[in-house]
């Protein structure tokens, strides 16, 4: 998975909304489009972007296509975010020790 593609996909508020809805259960395009102020084809385009980024997968169920989150795609995003968070944790801990005089800064 390409992190740039994943973050670009998640930069759009409509796609983040779709991801939030899909956290609870797989949905078809009609169900996803119903509460949104955009057309069903526009929602399909958003889903295609999320799928291309590896964040959503499609399952055919009869004539319907169900969209669900792709856990592996989010795992890679999460790993990267955890690395960034650890960097900040170390930096903030060093700053705390420096300010409090608890050791080397």
From TrEMBL:
Domain HTH arsR-type, chain residue ranges per copy: 1-92
Highest taxon of the lineage: Bacteria
Name by which UniProt lists this protein: Metalloregulator ArsR/SmtB family transcription factor
Source species: Thermaerobacter composti
């Amino acid at each position: 998975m390409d992190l740039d593609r994943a973050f670009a996909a998640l930069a759009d508020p409509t796609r983040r909304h779709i991801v939030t809805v899909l956290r609870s259960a797989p949905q078809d395009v009609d169900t996803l489009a119903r509460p949104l102020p955009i057309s069903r084809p526009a929602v399909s385009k958003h889903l295609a972007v999320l799928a291309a980024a590896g964040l959503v997968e499609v399952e055919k169920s009869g004539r319907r296509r169900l969209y669900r989150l792709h856990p592996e795609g989010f795992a890679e995003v999460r790993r990267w975010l955890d690395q960034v968070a650890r960097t900040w944790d170390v930096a903030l801990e060093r700053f705390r020790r420096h300010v409090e005089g608890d050791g080397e800064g």
